[in-house]
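Morning. Coffee machine broken again, so started the prediction first thing and wrote up yesterday's gels while waiting. Chain of 118 residues, entered below exactly as on the submission form.
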Amino acid sequence: MITRTVLSKAMSGTADPPLLPLPDRVAELLSERARFAATHASWADERVGTDDLLVGLADKIWKNKRVPDLEDLVVARPAEATGRPAWEEFIALDEVLSGIGEAADERLAFQASFPIHG
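Came back before lunch.
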């Protein structure tokens, strides 16, 4: 049997007591941040901003997945801003990503030890 969460009840309008609407600024902040759920996997779209690319990169490197096309897009932003060659920016980024990625197996095993169902 699936237990309905407070959020699912609120979304369906069946929360008791009814939930009050969010203040406008809170709703605005949530919608700004919620875009990452949509854009972090669609980084090839030229309209995606630097912050969206970084969220996508973080999502990949958390699992130690290296995606050269995404890394190239991320590296291009600071290279363009600083005038440094992209390869120099990549070397600096690669060192950071490698360090984060090395602990991925341990991180993912820990995360998997907490079931999300039942």
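The first helix runs from residue 6 to 12. Going to sketch it on the whiteboard this afternoon.
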